[in-house]
Design brief:
Blueprint (H helix, E strand, L loop, with lengths): L17 E6 L4 E4 L6 E11 L4 E7 L4 H15 L5 E3 L7 E3 L6 E2 L1 H9 L3 E2 L11 H12 L1 H5 L7 H15 L1
Parallel strand pairs: 1-5, 5-8
Antiparallel strand pairs: 1-3, 2-3, 3-4, 6-7
Protein name: Integrase core domain protein
Organism: Segatella buccae ATCC 33574
Pfam family, one: rve
């Protein structure tokens, strides 16, 4: 019986408790107006699980500088900092993954400490730990991505301006 039934449980969320952060899998394009060169931009996503209030923006990479910038902009957008940040186990946030004692990247840890947040990375290969942000990414594909589909952007700022207009409707 236990091999055929997947046991799931309800997770209770509280206001201002956590923010889940992730990068969307599908990247967006920015076209240089001078050269016509196309660059791919990553999409940073942050969601407050209690209210499902969502923030997203395009950044150039998944490096720690862009992760920290995305988290900081999300906190400005949310007008506050949660008690904890729950990132994926990407190198920008976690130096060494460990089931019991993950080692948080020094710069990301300093950023979190500055905002009074703890960092609780999701477990490796456990996407259900952050199912809410994974689902939010899918919803963003169906709304924000569709809203800007077919548009051409000459800069990251132009792309983010279009994302934020659509994000306002999404929330």
């Amino acid at each position: 019986y236990k091999f055929h039934i997947k046991v799931v449980g309800h997770v209770e969320h509280y206001a201002a408790d956590q923010v889940y952060v992730d990068f969307a899998g599908d990247r967006l394009e920015v076209v240089d107006g001078m050269t016509g060169e196309t660059k791919k931009a990553e999409v940073f996503v942050a969601v407050l699980p209690f209210s499902h209030y969502t923030y997203c923006e395009a950044v150039w990479s998944q490096r720690k500088e862009d992760l920290i910038k995305g988290c900081e902009n999300a906190m400005l957008y949310f007008e506050g900092a949660p008690a904890a940040i729950v990132p994926d186990n990407l190198k920008a946030a976690v130096t060494r993954s460990d089931r019991n004692e993950p080692v948080i990247n020094d710069d990301f840890a300093a950023f979190a400490e500055h905002y009074g947040c703890a960092v609780y990375p999701a477990r490796v290969r456990h996407p259900k730990d952050k199912a809410l942000v994974e689902n939010t990414v899918k919803l963003l594909y169906r709304s924000v991505y569709l809203d800007i589909e077919g548009m051409t952007f000459s800069s990251l700022d132009d792309l983010n301006a279009a994302i934020h207009v659509s994000l306002h409707d999404f929330n």
